[in-house]
């Protein structure tokens, strides 16, 4: 099967000293034109803000309003907790995905950006969190996953331990991932499921 990706700017937000760009990518089956999936990502652009003439920050977006607010993590005990260790070479390995941003490999660039050393790719952190949901809630069935949403809260350094807490509510799994060594939340979001594993 051959795939065709089409990307477009779905949102642009003036945050004053920075801007946030929302990118939508739709993946189609070549030939039939059947839409297979859609992904949304945001990029935080330091120093790119201040383009709005209004006294209020400019915001243009076609992003569903009910999906971009702060994630409300349940106050109850989690349904499951999963701990995983990232490797010191994790960011270098993840570069094989095609993301060659030097922030993840060059100590000098990381220092200029305000970090003590190169940081892990955000999507790699998201991958750890979703894998925790698949292992703990979906009993290893990746096909149970229908939709993924994540909000990045803080960076992760390669070699740190990730603890993902999960709350199953109906067909939605809320999750929060923390770095054990710093006791800081780095990611929060939810995973919608096509079906609930019968073992639960």
From TrEMBL:
Q: Which GO terms describe its molecular function?
A: (3S)-3-hydroxyacyl-CoA dehydrogenase (NAD+) activity; 17-beta-hydroxysteroid dehydrogenase (NAD+) activity; enoyl-CoA hydratase activity
Note the superkingdom of the native organism. Eukaryota
Any one GO BP annotation for this protein: fatty acid beta-oxidation
Q: Which intervals hold domain MaoC-like?
A: 86-184
GO annotations of cellular component type:
peroxisome
The residue ranges of the Peroxisomal multifunctional enzyme type 2-like N-terminal domain are 2-47
InterPro entries per the UniProt record, alphabetical: HotDog_dom_sf, MaoC-like_dom, MFE-2_N
Q: What is the protein's name according to its record?
A: MaoC-like domain-containing protein
Native organism? Linum tenue
């Amino acid at each position: 099967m051959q795939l065709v990706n089409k990307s477009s700017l779905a949102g642009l937000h003036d945050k004053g000293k920075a801007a946030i760009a929302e990118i939508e990518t739709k993946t189609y089956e070549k030939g039939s034109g059947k839409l297979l999936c859609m992904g949304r990502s945001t990029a935080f652009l330091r120093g790119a803000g201040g383009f709005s003439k209004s006294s209020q920050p400019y915001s243009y977006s076609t992003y569903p309003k009910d999906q971009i607010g702060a994630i409300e993590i349940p106050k109850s005990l989690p349904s499951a907790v999963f701990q995983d260790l990232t490797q010191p070479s994790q960011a270098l390995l993840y570069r094989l995905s095609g993301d060659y941003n030097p922030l993840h490999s060059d100590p000098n660039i990381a220092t200029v950006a305000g970090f003590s050393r190169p940081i892990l790719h955000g999507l790699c952190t998201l991958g750890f969190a979703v894998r925790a949901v698949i292992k703990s809630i979906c009993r290893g069935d990746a096909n149970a996953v229908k939709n993924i949403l994540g909000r990045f809260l803080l960076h992760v350094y390669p070699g740190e331990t990730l603890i993902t807490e999960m709350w199953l509510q109906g067909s939605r799994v809320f999750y929060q991932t923390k770095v054990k060594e710093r006791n800081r939340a780095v990611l929060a979001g939810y995973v919608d499921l096509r079906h609930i594993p019968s073992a639960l």
